[in-house]
């Protein structure tokens, strides 16, 4: 109810109308709960209803990767342009609106405050499924389809099919159902490769195809005929050139068991591609013309950033694997806002993918100089092994708001933060570093709101000066040493003495409470 009322005008007549719609007493049984959730659905604005119902297509209790969900929403045409923001930003607003209405549960946040992982409560998902079927929004196949394929055949207005069952494509696609625009399969086995021609002719107008768990040895050539695809998620061993015939693609997600994959030289044919993601290292070919790509993950910059910039001049969000000994000047990426750099140096973690440790290169020991564009807002450094002296390049970035240093992103036992640095930083996360001492001045981090420190066993203390930052709201510490915990208690005591009871300090999931004075007489 709170989620419903929070989005309605504070007018008595509206609230009374909502009140009359609710049972005077909501029973604890499932039906009563579903009716309450249905009330939230009915009060959703139109632009959110499709986004909400779409959640019913995901597996029960599954974690949903929000960037992927947003790409699906965009491919489906759910996001309404407003002329001033990108579709991604608008979609993030939709997502947060569902969170604020308690219709989505956040499992994990990015340090930037965006949702990384979310899930749907079982009852909320049940409502999505029921309403989705009732409104013919999608068909959810949770049973062997051979007994119910007639439902697909006779549902001429059906546009989406979700399934977690082993699918017989011949059964599913006979007779042809051209109305279907989206097909998402969460089962490992299909007969897709055996009947690809039938599949393509039956679902010729597909806009969304997700086969995320269906491992295909080779890319079925017939899939290249699905030229209306906006979203493709597929598991392959090689990246075939024929994928590049799908010129309408906006999002391409390629999963593989291979340690690396080479992009085809004709990838520039994907003129509408904005998002390219993979779970392996992607090597760039020589690309004939620039692309409009905005987001790419796990790309290997073996030939320096200049060549990359020529291929993808408008890149905004980049995850890069660094193996090169060359200087990497990211300043040329003048639209870049989010950057994750993954080096191939020593990892403090025991379970690191072997392919990411190839050569055991350490960018710091190899004297690699990395420069960043002033547009950068979010920076994550992993296994780069940079010396803390190189932090001077980062701490003066004028727009940097979120910084993550993890798994030996920087190496060395002493970090001395210079005067007046990190003027715009809002959140800082230090994770799995060998740092022992951290020295700051009172002019550092004037806008810091959140500090997270985890698995920094050797770090002796959190600087007391950080507690005096007026904007600081949270200090979160996990699995650190005893002396560091003592410093947190000192910060707590000092801030209590100064009357700052708003600062929240959490250690290993437990709060260090404020000693708020009792003024009762």
List the helices and strands and how they pair.
Blueprint: H1 2-6, H2 12-21, H3 30-42, H4 46-54, E1 64-65, H5 66-76, H6 87-100, E2 105-109, E3 115-119, H7 122-134, E4 139-141, H8 149-154, E5 160-163, H9 169-172, E6 182-185, H10 196-202, E7 208-215, E8 231-235, E9 251-255, E10 260-262, E11 275-278, E12 281-283, E13 295-300, H11 305-311, E14 317-321, E15 328-329, E16 338-342, E17 370-371, E18 378-382, E19 386-387, H12 391-395, E20 402-406, E21 410-411, E22 414-416, E23 427-431, E24 437-439, E25 450-454, E26 474-478, H13 482-497, E27 504-507, E28 510-511
Parallel strand pairs: 4-5, 5-6, 6-7, 7-8, 8-9, 9-11, 10-12, 11-13, 12-13, 13-14, 14-16, 15-17, 16-18, 18-20, 19-21, 20-23, 22-24, 23-25, 25-26, 26-27
Antiparallel strand pairs: 1-3, 2-3, 27-28
Helix pairs in contact: 3-7, 4-6, 5-6
Protein name: NB-ARC domain-containing protein
Organism: Lactuca saligna (Willowleaf lettuce)
GO molecular function: ATP binding
């Amino acid at each position: 109810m709170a989620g419903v009322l929070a989005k309605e005008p504070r007018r008595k007549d509206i609230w009374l109308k909502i009140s009359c719609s609710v049972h005077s007493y909501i029973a604890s049984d499932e039906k009563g709960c579903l009716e309450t959730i249905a009330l939230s659905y009915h009060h959703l604005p139109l632009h959110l209803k499709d986004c909400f119902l779409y959640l019913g297509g995901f597996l029960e209790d599954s974690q949903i990767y929000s960037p992927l969900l947003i790409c699906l929403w965009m491919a489906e045409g759910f996001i309404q342009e407003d002329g001033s923001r990108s579709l991604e930003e608008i979609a993030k607003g939709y997502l947060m609106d569902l969170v604020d209405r308690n219709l989505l549960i956040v499992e994990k946040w990015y340090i930037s405050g965006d949702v990384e992982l979310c899930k749907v409560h079982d009852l909320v998902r049940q409502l999505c499924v029921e309403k989705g079927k009732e409104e013919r929004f999608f068909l959810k196949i949770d049973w062997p389809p051979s007994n119910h394929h007639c439902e697909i055949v006779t549902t001429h207005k059906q546009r989406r099919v979700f399934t977690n069952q082993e699918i017989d494509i011949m059964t599913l696609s006979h007779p042809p159902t051209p109305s279907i625009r989206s097909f998402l399969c969460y089962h490992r086995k299909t007969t897709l490769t055996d009947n690809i021609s039938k599949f393509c002719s039956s679902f010729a107008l597909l806009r969304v195809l997700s086969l995320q768990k269906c491992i295909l040895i080779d890319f079925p050539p017939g899939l290249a005929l699905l030229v209306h695809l906006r979203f493709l998620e597929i598991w392959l061993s090689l990246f075939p050139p024929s994928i590049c015939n799908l010129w309408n693609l906006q999002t391409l997600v390629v999963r593989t068991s291979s340690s690396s994959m080479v992009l085809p030289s004709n990838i520039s044919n994907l003129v509408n591609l904005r998002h390219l993601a993979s779970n392996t290292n992607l090597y760039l070919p020589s690309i004939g013309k620039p692309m409009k790509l905005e987001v790419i993950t796990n790309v290997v910059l073996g030939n320096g950033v200049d060549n990359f910039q020529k291929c993808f001049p408008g890149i905004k969000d980049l995850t890069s694997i660094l193996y090169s000994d060359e200087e990497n000047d990211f300043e040329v990426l003048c639209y870049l806002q989010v950057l994750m750099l993954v080096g191939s140096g020593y990892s403090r973690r025991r379970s690191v993918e072997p392919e990411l440790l190839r050569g055991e290169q350490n960018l710091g020991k190899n004297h690699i100089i990395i420069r960043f564009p002033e547009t950068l807002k979010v920076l994550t450094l992993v296994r780069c092994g940079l010396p803390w002296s190189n932090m001077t390049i980062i701490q003066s970035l004028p727009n940097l708001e979120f910084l993550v240093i993890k798994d030996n992103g920087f190496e060395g036992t002493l970090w001395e933060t210079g005067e007046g640095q990190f003027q715009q930083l809002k959140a800082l996360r230090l994770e799995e570093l060998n740092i022992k001492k951290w020295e700051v001045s009172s002019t550092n981090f004037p806008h810091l709101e959140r500090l997270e420190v985890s698995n920094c066993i050797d770090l002796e203390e959190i600087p007391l000066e950080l507690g005096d930052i007026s904007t600081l709201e949270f200090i979160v510490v996990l699995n650190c040493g005893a002396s560091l915990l003592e410093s947190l208690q000192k910060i707590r005591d000092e801030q209590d003495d100064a009357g700052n009871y708003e600062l929240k300090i959490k250690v290993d999931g437990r709060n260090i409470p404020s000693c708020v004075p009792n003024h009762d007489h």
